[in-house]
Amino acid sequence: MVKIDKTPPVPTLTVSSNVAAIGSSVTADFSCADSFSLVASCVLTVDGAIYSSTPGQVVLPATLTPHIYALAVTSVDVAGNLSDPTKGTASVEFKQFALGPFVTLSSPQVTVGGSVTATWGCAGAAAGVASCKLTLDGALISSTPGQVVLPAQQVGPHAVAVTATSLTGSTETAGASYTTVAAPPKYNLCIPLGYNATVAKNVGSAYGFSFKLCDAAGKNVSSSSIVLVATVVNPGGYPAVPMAPGGSNPGNEFIFGNSAYSYTLKTTGLPAGDMTLEFVVKGDPTGTKYSLPFKLKK
């Protein structure tokens, strides 16, 4: 008795993903089987065009624009039976996902010497983001999303940006900013000063300064261990030349005695008007500048 094969072959098709980011790849795995006779052909078509006649794994053609691929596997056995067209089909959509860069800062303002923590990343990192980078004032800080501590050494505003770049080169950016402010002065001039800053002296004469140093609470903390150094005379940036260099104020350092600081400034070459003698505390990492007012006349 001759058996007539009327059973069609069975195509199978699986894809690694039904939705993928533009520029990424998707793998299709197809095969055909027949329980009665041999498979004569097993063909994968993509959008109606033959893509492969060799069962196994194939990579779908890359696309740089949104597109939905229609995949179908058709098979014919040696008896001429054609596979069911409703079986062995799939669709794969390539789309542009939102890259979703984001950044949040622990504080909008920080004092010099402190730090700001940035929490950042790209929400679409698993769907088409080629890179996700954090920059500070235009300089690359990190390419690994997460948390990073940003420096606060330079006074002023600072721009933080997260740039997400897609597989096709398009970008999305998110930003934030923080401001670094100078630390409050550790010291202040004790009031009243030990000299009369309102009385003008003649240009060319010796100008004597005397004062005490207070802390932020107004307590006198003047001490020989706190060394003050004269730096410049303003306005004009004139050198703070002591009356007897190497003598009364060696190295432009203020003399400490009787619980106060003193400095004798040589005023030759300075202009008449309202002036200030600038000084710093030796070894102070903040570099805070202090000003002593005085007047000169011709």
Compute the gyration radius: what is it?
40 Å
Mean pLDDT reading:
92
Morphology: rod-shaped
Tell me about the largest β-sheet. Answer: 5 strands, mixed
CATH architecture of the largest domain, please? Sandwich
Give the count of structural domains: 3
H and E string:
EEEEEEEEEEEEEEEEEEEEEEEEEE
Largest beta sheet: strand ordering: 2-8-7-4-5
Number of strands: 26
CATH topology of the largest domain: the name is Immunoglobulin-like
Report the CATH superfamily of the largest domain: Immunoglobulins
Tell me the strand percentage band: over 45%
Give the distance, in angstroms, between the N- and C-terminal Cα atoms. 135 Å
Low-pLDDT segments, ≥5 res = none
Instruction: Specify the CATH class of the largest domain.
Output: Mainly Beta
The helix tally amounts to 0
User: What is the structural class?
Assistant: mainly beta
Question: Which bin fits the share of residues in helices?
Answer: under 10%
